[in-house]
Amino acid sequence: MNIQKSIVFRSMLLLLILVISIFLFLSSVQFLFPFLLACFFSIVLYPMIQFVAKTFHFSHTLACVIVLLLTICSIILLFAFILFEIIDGIVYLAKWLPGPFHNFLIDITEKVNSWLLPLLDKLNIYIDNLTPEQNALMKEQLEEISISFADQFANFLENLLRSIGDQLAALPGTMTIIIFSLLCTFFICKDWPKFNHWMKTHITNTIYLVPFQIYDQLKITLLKYAKAQFLLVSISFITILIGLMLLKIEHAFTISVIISALDLLPILGTGVVFIPWSLYLLISGNSLLAYFLIGLYLLIIIQRQILEPKLISDAIGIHPLLTILAVYLGFQLFGINGLWAGPLTLFLGKAAHQAKLFSTIRHFIKTGEVNGGKS
Q: Are residues 273 and 258 both part of a single domain?
């Protein structure tokens, strides 16, 4: 009986610790975000720091400085490259877009007129047949609809401009967070050997090893997952590039890079570009090219649906059905962010299982000793 009471007590203690930890984390995450970002940077950069220190026989501190400076320079160059590409794309579109856009508006106007004018004629005939009271009521309803539409459009513009202003106003704060995170990253990486030594000295060996085992397993899983996604995106890129080159589309390489990168987006994917592009070509009268683009889009979808379950399942060792279920539950619970949170939770659970965290917890609940992770 005492053994059962001890098991229940330890179970409740662990549950209480878990609930309190989750509550403290969720309530403080907005304040600790720069530090958490620094921890993430440190996890990513520390293996590079060790490699530089061992390869070039630099001191640990000097290796930290070099790797951090190279990372900052790489990020700046990447953003500069993206910015220049965007500017170049805007300049190209500014030269190319007016003619096609003008023709597009003319086509849209003609199609709307051909569809709307007969309806207006029928509506006028119907209104003429109404009584004066019904006629006045109809006009009043139409006025209310137009006023409501105008108000909604005005609210949309107001919210859009406000959101743009908020984003611009948040830029200084974002830069402050990044600078603070990079400073924290430097000190975490520099003092990591001391922190590691303190952890080994003051914490039980099993408890100390489990987080590192989880990290190692998670790193392996995420690396395999990234390789699988890179392979899928590369296949999509090659397919899109060959298709666009056969269709003699200008800037086929740049367009292929952008569309294949969008293939990483959950649910949306390459359809963000292909669907509006095909609709525009259909409306503007270039039906043949539109059908070819739709065919190319369907080919990409089919090949991804065939290859993705096999590649992802082999990479992370999780059945595709569980991954789909994790995405669905994450979306239902957390909205659009759940599309990433669901699979990430699944990856963490698998890494924790491989690191024998659950067996350690089970052993602690049964015996009160923290040494079950070594079995």
A: yes
Cα–Cα distance between 278 and 273 in angstroms, integer? 9
With respect to residue 4, please indicate whether it lies within any of the assigned structural domains. Answer: no
Q: Kindly state the percentage of the chain with pLDDT values over 70.
A: 65
Q: Which residue has the higher pLDDT, 17 or 65?
A: 65
Q: Count up the domains in the chain and report the number.
A: 2
Segment 22-44 mean pLDDT: 79
Out of 193, 209, 237, a domain closes at 193
Mean pLDDT score across all residues of the chain: 75
Domain of residue 68 covers 34-193
CA distances from 366 to 4, 6, 169, 369 (A): 9, 8, 55, 8
The distance of Cα 41 from the centroid of its chain, to the nearest Å, equals 18
Q: Positive or negative, the Cα torsion across 341, 344, 349, 350? A: positive
Q: Is the pLDDT of residue 173 over 70?
A: no
Contacts of 175 (CB under 8 A, 6+ apart): none
Query: Is the overall model pTM greater than 0.85, yes or no?
Result: no
Assess whether 282 and 207 both reside in one domain: yes
Tell whether 211 and 292 lie within a shared domain. Answer: yes
Which of 193, 219, 184, 207 minimizes the C-alpha distance to 36? 184
For the beta carbon of residue 363, count every other beta carbon within 10 angstroms. Answer: 19
Vertex 103, ends 102 and 104: CA angle to 5°?
90
* CA gap 32, 40 in Å, rounded: 12
Clarify whether residues 182 and 212 are in a common domain. Answer: no
CA atoms of 335 and 340, how far apart (whole Å): 10
Q: Which of 138, 172, 193 lies at the terminal end of a domain, its last residue?
A: 193
